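Incident review: delayed structure delivery

Summary: a single-chain prediction request sat in the queue longer than the usual turnaround. Root cause was a stuck worker, restarted by the on-call engineer. No data loss occurred. The affected request and its eventual output are reproduced below so the record is complete for anyone auditing the incident later.

Affected input:
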Amino acid sequence: SQTRELNFASQLKYIDQKIDNRYRLYKNENRNRDIPDPEGGWTTGGVHDAVATMIDKGEVLMAVDYVSKYYSNMNDGPSLRVETYNNLLAALVEKDNSELVVQILEEMITERNIEPDVQTYNCILEMYGRQNISEMVQTAKDMNAAKIAPNRETFHTLIRHLSKLSDITPCMNIVQNMFRQEIAPNHCTYKVLMDSFIMQGRYEEAKQVLSQAICKGESADEDASIADFSASSVDVLGSALRIYAHMHDTESLQKVFDALVIDDG
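Output delivered after worker restart:
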């Protein structure tokens, strides 16, 4: 609805006030490019493909300019796809260009009346996760209130950033919530969580997650992490190697190596 769209834009505007102008000069220096009209004319599909190609080449600001050029030439034409905006948002979030993220979101929602979808929210979650975890959590709540169903990427983004907290409970709650949403955690889920803890040197917590990964999310005691690895995926085994190497646990390392050899065989 229009009310929800405006509220969503207002939430985004809140962080715009917190962002300094470190990107402003960079943005101005790289804008107003001379972009020729496409040979086949301006179409939403053509713009989508061109933007994707520019992003693949690392020309993210040129992709932003290309979208602006489309609207300057097709003012009364159809709005671009939400997928086109999502590609732009993801690329800008990856470059930590929050100012342009907010500007594009406001244009998308308030000017073009394009409904944000789950991928749009995933981009916002990733942006907030890098800047302010409490705002990321609030965005997840807003997403739920808007009745936009999360997908696996949503949960993985939340897990990756919530693992920065000293308390492991929120991450474990996210994993359990995946079961409630009928998106069962898979080997990638546990790898995201384990690798996050490993990067922070939190090996005991990574070992707890390994126990859950081996038991497929069911309750597991501490010894489960050094039990039978044979049914575990290569991704999980790879994280297990890193955990036990850091913990200097040679016995468990040997078990993981044995499981990898059996898996390769």
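Verification: The CA atoms of residues 10 and 33 lie 30 Å apart.
Action items: add queue-age alerting; document worker restart procedure.
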